[in-house]
Amino acid sequence: MTTLDATQKTVLVHEILNQHYGIQEIYARLDPMHELIATVLSHRTTHANEVTAFRRMRERFGSWEAIRDAPVEDLTDAIQTANYPEVKAPYIKQILARIIAERGEANIDFLREMTTDDAMAWLTALPGVGLKTSTLLLLFNFQKPVLPVDTHVHRVTQRLGIIGPKVSAEKAHAILLAYLPQDALVLFNFHKHFYWHGQRVCTWSYPKCHQCVLREYCDYYTERKGPRA
Predict the structure, then answer these.
(1) For residue 33, pLDDT beyond 60
(2) What is the chain's mean pLDDT, rounded?
(3) Contact (Cβ atoms closer than 8 angstroms) between residue 116 and residue 144
(4) What is the mean pLDDT of residues 106-133?
(5) Sign of CA dihedral 94, 96, 100, 103
(6) Which residue range or ranges hold the HhH-GPD domain (predicted)?
(7) May I ask the CATH architecture of the domain 32-142?
């Protein structure tokens, strides 16, 4: 296997995945407020259950203000398809209360005009909002140069040996970002391609190493699978 430093390997495998999956234009699946609350709901939850929880919440309460004012027990019941609804319901109420109190409405479009650092600091100060939620929102909705690291991105980059075996997903945000150009389109494609690769090929159990276009550069393949994999 070719010996590369972490930056060289990151750039190279990113280029390979660009060719494999194709360059994607940045898109936002949802408006910013929807994305923020949906991402809180998505933690440790399937996409289908997140969508169901959000839909039931909006159908039951009708507006952000009504969700803010809802009894926590009622909101917990409405989002029960999301894992840990008893934790997420108070966070959602607190997030909405803070945004509406500060901005006068449930709208976070103002983040577009803020610097990346200021926008990140503002978001991570919200109850229950961490790096993953903040980076997803800022990259997808506002095209800020940040890098979301979810479980798939974390697993694939760890198996490749780009980040160490004990590096947490939280720490990986800054480490991986430092290896890449500070360009939103580059970072968006890095996130999407590694996300897809983790979903489809480099799965948590039974990774399909024989199908992997990155195996020549993968520490996991070399050390655990060997040339006969």
Answers:
(1) yes
(2) 94
(3) yes
(4) 96
(5) positive
(6) 41-200
(7) Orthogonal Bundle (1.10)
